[in-house]
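Entry:
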Amino acid sequence: MKIKVLHIVGGSIANGAYIGASILHKALLDQGVSSKLLNDTCNKRDQLKINSFDKSIIFIIKNF
């Protein structure tokens, strides 16, 4: 059975929770585990930068 992991993290990509989840996410990917990271507060510039090298990070875009 293949394990699938979803990390749900709120807040800036500069905060400790996001950084820790990102480190764990990358380590799981290196081990062959299907891992995705979901974030709801990243700005568009950071989204483009991150998605250019890791397509498994998902951002929720808020339209206010």
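The chain is about 35% helix and 25% strand.
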